[in-house]
Specification:
The chain is an alpha/beta fold and 213 residues long. 42% of the residues lie in helices and 16% in strands. It has two domains: 110 residues, 3-Layer(aba) Sandwich (Rossmann fold), CATH 3.40.50.2300; 90 residues, Winged helix-like DNA-binding domain superfamily/Winged helix DNA-binding domain (Arc Repressor Mutant, subunit A, Orthogonal Bundle). Strand 4 and strand 5 form a beta hairpin.
Length: 213
Amino acid sequence: MIEDDNEIAGRIATGLTNAGFTVERVDNGIDGYAMGTDGDFDAAVLDLGLPEMEGLEVLRRWRREGRTMPVLVLSARGTWSEKVDGLNAGADDYISKPFHVPEVAARLKALIRRTSGLATPVLTHGRVTLDTAAGQVTLDGKPVELTARELRMLNYFMHRIGRIVSQADLAEHLYTLEESCESNTIEVYVSRLRRKLGSDVVKTVRGLGYRMD
């Protein structure tokens, strides 16, 4: 998230965290551009009126350099021409201020689903079903209680069926830069998923990471 207003940024970060996201935040365009260039993010929330580098310029540079992560633009500029400018610069969606944080969370989830080739918020793989909108998981139709971190991990795997996911990828998407992640933490959470959802739900690919297939 690139937003220079501390009150708005705090409100969004809290709401998105409660909705199951891991949020990194910077407050200016130059740092935001660098973070979006160097990091592997599922999506970006980008304000347009930023200090040091305008949001539209950040977006244009990302797209020129081949960065394809979905970008949700937030702006106090609500005219249709400004929305067109944002979309033409490469934005995937646009919300004008003021806004409701649950709508921001819902739109982000929709953008990430579409990027992963998924049309519905209810993801099913084998015996496991995950309702990404409600944050509910079932196994053979019966509800399963997962912690917030376990839910994030399952969500990450189910958006990447058949792909190898490294421990570093999981740590990056489950923890913010300010949070510590011990070397065996990822293994612990994978073991918990297996215990709750079945021993074969996530497979270990020796030397590379894990795969859900």
